[in-house]
Predict the 3D structure of the following.
Amino acid sequence: MHDVAFGFAGVVAAAIIFLGLQYVVAPWATTRSFGMPRPAGDAVTASWLRLKGVRDIASGLVVVALMIWGGPKMVGLILIVEAFIPLGDMSVVLAADGSPKSAFGIHGITALLMLLAGIPLALGAV
């Protein structure tokens, strides 16, 4: 079971890094999946979206680094902590009258999956 949870942590990290790369490379196209109305189409907004991408990449790399050097409990703890990011995204989307489908279906499920992988690893239950 440990291998499944640890492998899933790797999938989560890869997905976060991939999403971050999408925000860096194609910020306008990527905003469609976030669940909120699209922001202004100017260069300044694109820069802010790219910053989001850089932070997503860093979040995924933290998981990868802990998978390599930190061990299962540390990976589990960071997944639990980082689950607050998609929970926050979900809250922001809902507060902005964005798409509930995206809020719960993308951000909420992402947080849930991170917790389902992180809790057993953090508790040493796998």
Summary: Helices lie at 2-25, 27-31, 43-69, 72-82, 84-95, 100-123.
